[in-house]
Design a protein that fits this description.
This protein is mainly alpha-helical. The N and C termini lie far apart (about 95 Å). Helix 8 runs parallel beside helix 10. Among the domains are: about 70 residues, Serine Threonine Protein Phosphatase 5, Tetratricopeptide repeat; about 100 residues, no CATH class. The longest helix is centred in the first third of the chain and has 32 residues. About 75% of the residues lie in helices and about 0% in strands.
């Protein structure tokens, strides 16, 4: 109705200058386009929720034939591919989106998430930083950036990110743990355990209390596993989720202490046996890939012993 009223107003104003009429017509066109794109976004979101990948992509592709330079639609197409774990395709769409409109913050944010999922944490940090240049008020909430910084080995900046996240999420055990991990990367586990940031009560997720107790010296690794199992109440789905978090943070804990063997044992369980589809599930997968690659590189760099030296060592 508003569009019809605007058209009537334009046609009923014979004294308006031609340039003014053109400007009003362009404004009307932009309003119509915005409404059409909102409808497209709503359709795509509904199709993603219903797990209807092909139909969602069809809607996005049809929209792009009409609005080929819409960074928003390219970003939504990237979202479809990202949701269905087609990261290379998602990344290509998001690169196109930021090329079309470098000021479109949502594209930079999703690009950073996808780059992390592609095991490219340093690139992920760059994209998250671009996002925060455009939306600086989001900085305290950006815990994903802190995780990317940890894997990019920028422990000092990572610790700062988790410190500011505490201001908006003071009861989150995971935030405290990642802050500890960054400090351990800089100073070692012993000193990191002496400088754990305060935690407000309220994180009732299982087994977060025991995970926090692991770095404060109040709980053992077996306490974490026992809590994960007992807290499931016989619910298989809940137990898988509990065990995932238990093994994820046990793997990270053993990394902080320098025990890469135990770290990888637990991380393999988090990444494979009890895998999850959310972002923290991707953290386990990315960690496992990165550390496996690093261990493989170290093994390849070890000097190979000759058969003669092997025989000598057995004597």
């Amino acid at each position: 109705m508003a569009s019809m009223l605007l058209i009537c107003c334009i046609s009923a104003a014979p004294t308006a200058a031609p340039a003014q009429v053109a400007t009003q017509g362009q404004s009307l066109q932009k309003t119509d386009e915005a409404g059409e794109m909102r409808k497209v976004f709503s359709q795509i979101r509904a199709l993603i929720y219903q797990n209807r990948r092909n139909e969602a992509l069809q809607v996005a592709s049809e929209a792009l034939t009409k609005f080929p330079e819409s960074a928003q639609i390219w970003t939504m197409k990237g979202r479809i591919h990202q949701t269905f774990r087609e990261f290379e395709k998602a990344h290509a769409d998001l690169i196109h989106a930021v090329e079309l409109d470098p000021s479109f913050a949502d594209a930079w944010q999703l690009k950073g998430v996808v780059e992390f999922q592609m095991t490219r944490p340093a690139d992920s940090v760059d994209s998250f930083d671009k996002f925060l240049e455009l939306r600086p008020a989001e900085a305290p909430y950006h815990w994903q950036r802190g995780i990317s910084l940890y894997y990019a080995a920028d422990f000092e900046e990572g610790a700062l990110q988790f410190e500011i996240h505490k201001s908006v999420n003071p009861a989150d055990v995971e935030n405290v743990f990642w802050h500890y991990l960054c400090n351990a990367g800089m100073k070692g586990a012993t000193k990191a355990a002496e400088n754990i940031i305060p935690l407000q009560p309220g994180d009732g997720r299982i087994p977060m209390r025991e995970i926090h107790g692991l770095i404060t010296g109040k709980n053992t690794t077996m306490d974490v596993i026992d809590a994960a199992v007992k807290g499931s109440g016989g619910n298989g789905i809940q137990e898988k989720n509990n065990r995932f978090y238990a093994h994820l943070y046990l793997g990270l804990y053993f990394e902080s202490t320098g025990d890469q063997v135990k770290s990888l044992e637990h991380m393999q369980k988090a990444a494979e046996t009890y895998s999850q589809t959310h972002f923290m599930g991707d953290v386990a997968k990315v960690h496992y890939r990165l550390r496996q690659d690093a261990n493989g590189a170290r093994d390849r760099q070890k000097p190979q012993q000759s058969p003669e030296s092997d025989n000598n060592s057995e004597q």
